[in-house]
Amino acid sequence: MEFLQQLVFALVLGLSYALIAIGLTMVYGILKILHVAHAGIYTLGAYVGLLVVTHLTHNFWVALIAGMVASGLAGVLIYRGVYYYILRRSRIVPLIVSIGIFAAMNEFYRLVFGPYQHAFPAKLAFPMVITPYFVITPKQLLIIALTAVFLLALYFVFNRTKVGLAWQACSQDLAMAGAVGVPVDRAVALNFLLGSALAGAAGILMAFYRNEVYPTMGNVVAYKAFVVVVLGGFGSIRGSVIAGLLLALVETFLGSLEWFEFPRDAIAFLLLIFVLMFRPKGLFGRL
Amino acid sequence: MRRLTIGFLLFAFIGGLALAGETVKIGFFSPLTGFAAADGHAALIGAQIAVDFINAAGGINGKPVELVYYDDACRADQASAIARKLIEQDQVVIAVSGSYSTPTRAAAKIFQEAGVPMISAYAIHPSIIETGHLIFRVGMGAPVEGVAGAHLAVEILGAKRIAVLTMDNDFGVSLSEYFVKTAKELGAEIVFEKKFPLGEREFRAMLAQVKLKNPDLIWATGYYGEAASIVSQARELGIEATILGQEGYDSPKFIELAGEAAEGVIIVTDLNRDSDREIVQKFLAEYEKRAGHPADMVAASAFDAVKVAAHAIAVAGTDAEAIAKAINDIRHMYDVVTGPFYAFLGREAIRPVEVQIVREGAFRFFHTFTEPEIIIPPEL
User: Which chain A positions have a beta carbon within 8 Å of B193's beta carbon?
Assistant: First the structure.
């Protein structure tokens, strides 16, 4: 009973890691930029969702869609407004710019919404799963179901559509893809749109699950998602999903042991060091 | 060049004198940005209310009080820089920390070395007042709070099997240290003990282990964000044990975030919202008017720290040693929100320890400790 219940916790946590890491790895796969501001987009999704549920309607789905649209557009804005102009510079330039954007976003949220944690009063009728071996709460079930839908949709887009094909071409060689007629700019913008919308969805799901939204909620996410991306191998979506689940499993089981003195968030780095020692490219890396 | 410098210094000196003649400056720092910004703002509003109350009543010996405040972002390096600024540039008479333990410790060292008194409003780490003879605290220290929590758990709530969750920073570690020690002395068994980092939001794995140990009480340290996660996740897992918290929980935000799960949670704190003392109700009303939400113990403690500072200056003037003596000489100070302060012993305010319980979405009176063996720090 104990083991299966912990497995449920790990699954929910792992899927939330995967959801945020996917956007990061998509951006890295194509532009080779470490997009730190992605965590700011995650927070943005949560705040837009919060605005909807506090001012418009308590309906969770409306909040989710609004948050995803806003996050997606913000992602495109960051690409077209900023990264687009510095892509040719050394990789450190976009990285520093990205960190700056992230810090500015955090302060923006603080100034507009205040430093306080806000509760997330969305309403959602979702079933609860009760078995003799484990319990899945409605919110946990929502995360599992919704993430599964997102992952399947993403798989479809990547492998069965022209956009997906364009992304694959861009990630292999951006200049060459452009030379053979792939509309690179549009493909990259779409890439940001989708990846950022997923980050926004992750932000709303976590805000709903933990019942709180606050300016710095992206901080831990920022580095956790990086660990997941590195662990999975840069640019590999499958790797991110598996690494997210793996990290959550290790965190959940080690974190529940009373004698294990290490803080949970440090486990990510222990695991990272351990994996990189044997697989420097990450689990599914193609670097 | 040299003449210019001397002229400038002279000008600055005269200017300083003139300014000093106009207002009494009290320095203040709290985290207005970063993860602790909510508490920092609450503390600032509390301190400003104190200044406004004092000025409305005619200031200190006729001179108006001015609060000079900065944002330390809850960082020790910022707090050190601010301490130097308050001392050298603003030339404050006394400073008040509206910040957490780590920045407060850093600033305390600099104020002590520069010979400027400082009062910590609510930072609880024992080492803060050990910095030197000019450093005081109005909020409850960790030893008192931990010991009071243990007496509450074992003697009043009858707990025999206790699980301890400790936030791994100055605040959480020092609280749990005294709690565990005292609870064991009083005969309780600690069945589970684990640390978690500041900012942790995922306690389910840990709480599933706690549930297996079947404790009758959980002592969990944390600020209101961690606290809300612990409490709501514990109830989600069907843990029915009493959850005992401390001043970190003492915020209306805790109740908002934890929702239904907050009901019945008991906390050890400084502020009794149901007090019938006039100053308390006047402060609570004024705070809610300014902030738009109910006051917490952080705001109340900052208010009291400024009141103590003003009292000491009124009695002793601007000399640091005289101010220190005036604070040490305080007896039965009733004009404070988290008091009354019976005395300052070991530079720490000796005052009742309040216990509040969450009922119908609000903190309510549960118990007040006034026993000397509990409210006086164990090392005194």
Answer: 258
For residues B46, B48, B53, B59, the Cα torsion angle rounded to the nearest 10 degrees is 140
As a whole-number percent, the residues of chain B with pLDDT over 70 amount to: 94
**pLDDT tens digits, one per residue of B74-89:** 999 999 999 999 999 9
A111 touches chain B (CB under 8 A): no
Provide, as residue numbers in chain B, all residues whose Cβ is less than 8 Å from the Cβ of A256: 205-206, 208-209
Nearest one of A87, A214, A63 to B38, comparing CA atoms: A214
Nearest chain B Cα distance for residue A61, angstroms: 21
| Interface residue of B41, B99, B196, B202 to substitute, partner A, most A CBs within 10 Å | B202
The enclosing H or E element of A147 equals helix A138-160
The ipTM of this complex is: 0.79
- With beta carbons under 8 A apart, name residues in chain B contacting A113: none
Residues contacting residue B162 through CB under 8 Å, at least 6 positions apart: B153, B183, B188, B189, B190, B191, B215, B216, B217, B218, B219
Looking at the DSSP bridge assignments, the partners of residue B27 are B68, B95
Q: Does A172 touch chain B (CB under 8 A)?
A: no
Query: Mapping DSSP to helix (H, G, I), strand (E, B) and coil, where does residue B159 land?
Result: coil
pLDDT tens-digit readout, B35-54: 788 889 999 999 999 999 99
**What is the C-alpha to C-alpha distance for residues B178 and A9, in angstroms, rounded to an integer?**
32
8 A C-beta contact, residue A146 and residue A202: no
What are the angstrom distances between the C-alpha of B263 and each of A11, B163, B173, B242?
Answer: 29, 19, 26, 10
Length of chain A: 287
Q: Is A263's CB within 8 Å of B201's CB? A: no
Hey, is the C-beta of B195 within 8 angstroms of any chain A C-beta?
yes
Q: Are strands B189-196 and B65-71 parallel, antiparallel or unpaired?
A: unpaired
B330: phi then psi, degrees, rounded to nearest 5: -60, 130
Give Cβ neighbours of residue A25 (< 8 Å, ≥ 6 apart): A229, A232, A234, A235, A236, A237, A239, A240
Q: Is the dihedral of CA A209, A212, A217, A218 positive or negative?
A: positive
Query: What does chain B come to in residues?
Result: 380
CA B171, CA B223: separation in Å to the nearest integer? Answer: 9
Contacts with A28 (C-beta within 8 Å, 6 or more apart), sequence order = A34, A35, A229, A234, A235
Contact A212 B38 (CB under 8 A): no
Tell me the helices (H) and strands (E) count for chain B, helix number first: 13, 15
